[in-house]
Design a protein that fits this description.
9% strand; 295 residues; single chain; alpha/beta; Rossmann fold; 6 strands
C-alpha cells in the first residue's frame, strides 16, 4: 500500500503535537511535499505517529509504519476551520446536519463500500443521511462504488469528493455530523491486534484523532487501540467490528440530526490538546491554539 498523509503546506504558529498512544519514538524529518496532499488511511488499526511542536521540523515514524502512516496532524488547521464555522450567520449546522464523512486512500475500497452500505441502511430506515467520500479515487473504483450506490437506491445521496488539501480536509470534517471509520477487512490485522501489528497500523487511529480534533463524532470499530481513545475522548463511539450494518446504522443515527456547535468543537479541540495523545499539552489557561478565551 502507498503512503498517505494529513500534511499541511504551512504549519500555523499554534500547531500542537499529537503523539501515538504507544509512545513510539519519532525519527528524522521527512521532506514535505505540499503539492501532492492526500488524506489519512482509514480502516487500519494502530497508533498515529508523532507531530512536532510549532517551529520544529516534522518528524516521521520509525519502523514499518514509515511506508503507510501520515507523520502530520496539525491541530492549527482544525482551529482555523472551526473559527470559520463560528462566524456570525455561519455556524455550519445547516451544512453538517445528516452529513456522514469517510476519509480514505485509493486502495481502501473495502472501507468505502462499507460506508455506502451504511448510507443505504440509514436511508432505507427513513433517515435523510448523505455521504461524502474524501480521498483519491481511481476511475474503476469510482464506477464500482456508483454501481453499488445505484443498486442500493442511494446514488443521489453520495458525493465522491476526491482528494483534497489538508486545510480542506479539516473544513470537511467540521462540516460533517459524523465521521465513520469502518472496521478493517477480516484477515488484515496481524500480530495479535496490538499497535505495530501491521505495516499500516497507524492510519485508523490517526483518522479517529482527526475527527476528534474537528469536534466531530466518530463511529469506529471496537478494537484494542480504539478503546484507549474512547476512554479519554467522548467523541468516539465504538461498534463491534463484525456487527451487522444495521447496528452501525443505529449507532450513527444519534449524532446525525444535531451536529456539534462551534463551541462544542472548540471544547473538543481543547480536550484533545490536553489529552495524553498530545505531546505539547498546554498549561492551564494556555489555550492559544484552541479557540477564543472564555469569560
Amino acid at each position: 500500500m502507498g503512503g498517505v498523509a494529513l500534511n499541511p503546506a504551512e504549519r500555523g504558529p499554534d500547531a500542537a503535537s499529537v503523539v501515538p498512544p504507544t509512545g513510539d519514538p519519532a525519527g528524522p524529518a521527512p521532506t514535505e511535499t505540499p503539492q501532492a496532499p492526500t488524506v489519512p488511511r482509514p480502516s487500519v488499526p494502530g497508533a498515529p505517529v508523532a507531530v512536532p511542536p510549532a517551529g520544529a521540523p516534522a518528524q516521521a515514524p520509525t519502523g514499518p509504519a514509515d511506508s503507510g502512516v501520515a507523520p502530520h496532524l496539525d491541530l492549527a488547521l482544525f482551529g482555523v476551520a472551526i473559527a470559520a464555522r463560528g462566524r456570525p450567520g455561519r455556524t455550519g449546522a445547516e451544512e453538517a446536519a445528516w452529513t456522514v464523512l469517510h476519509l480514505g486512500a485509493a486502495e481502501d475500497e473495502h472501507g468505502r463500500a462499507s460506508v455506502v452500505d451504511l448510507l443505504a441502511a440509514l436511508r432505507h430506515s427513513g433517515q435523510p443521511a448523505r455521504l461524502r467520500l474524501v480521498g483519491a479515487l481511481p476511475q474503476a473504483q469510482r464506477g464500482r462504488l456508483l454501481e453499488r450506490a445505484t443498486a442500493a437506491g442511494v446514488v443521489g445521496a453520495l458525493d465522491l469528493v476526491g482528494a483534497r488539501a489538508p486545510h480542506e480536509i479539516a473544513r470537511l470534517l467540521v462540516e460533517a455530523a459524523l465521521l465513520v471509520v469502518p472496521a478493517p477487512p477480516a484477515g488484515q490485522r496481524h500480530g495479535g491486534g496490538g499497535a505495530g501489528s501491521t505495516p499500516d497500523d497507524g492510519g485508523l487511529v490517526a483518522v479517529v484523532l482527526a475527527g476528534c480534533a474537528a469536534g466531530t463524532p466518530v463511529l469506529a470499530p471496537d478494537l484494542p487501540e480504539t478503546r484507549r481513545l474512547a476512554a479519554e475522548l467522548p467523541e468516539v463511539t465504538l461498534v463491534a467490528p463484525r456487527a451487522p450494518v444495521e447496528a452501525w446504522a443505529r449507532a450513527a443515527v444519534r449524532p446525525l440530526p444535531v451536529p456539534p456547535t462551534p463551541d462544542d468543537r472548540w471544547t473538543a479541540l481543547r480536550r484533545l490538546r490536553r489529552s495524553s495523545f498530545c505531546r505539547d499539552r498546554p498549561a492551564l489557561g494556555d489555550e492559544s491554539a484552541a479557540g477564543p478565551a472564555r469569560g
